[in-house]
Prior knowledge:
The protein is mostly helical. Helices cover 80% and strands 0% of the residues. It has eight helices and no strands. Helix 3 (38-59) packs antiparallel against helix 4 and helix 4 runs antiparallel to helix 5 (91-108). The termini are far apart.
Amino acid sequence: MSPADFVPLAWNAAREHLDLFGSLGLCLGFAGGMMPRRSLILLTSAACSACFALHFLRLGAQTGTAMCLVSVMQSVVAARWIGTDSRAPWVAPLFLASSFVALCLTLATWNGWPSACAGLGSLLATTARLQANSQTMRRVFLGASSCWALHNTLVGSVFGLTCDLLTITALVIALVRGAARRATIAGPSAPLPGAA
């Protein structure tokens, strides 16, 4: 057996177990929405995207695989080099270039509505990663997760769809908690004029 023969043999042995990555991605997707800090949201999102890239590869969803790989890079960069006070000057051009790459990959792997949903979801997720505020980032991620839910419905990814629904739930919970926390910090509202 030559080394070249080993690659297809290994692929055939591993292919059936790639849904393990769908399961792991599902768990990481839910956890990401609940993370308390922006950097943790992004790093968990990067790990989730890496898992789903392998899951979509198995399903033959090439656009989904490509968008997940772009997502891994963007999430890691955003976690490290975008903060509440500053952003490295090369980050915006890198995100613009990676969005162009995502557009090209979407067109190169075009498969109709699934590709359109994955491409739009990727664009919204890129916008979310550029946000310095955690709550704003979560709001934009809601739109991205909705697009990915449509993609995953169309390509038949039970893991992906479940992950999106759990992620949307986690994001809503985190947004509500954040709003309640802000309201508590702001204190009671001033009484309305004319109130006794």
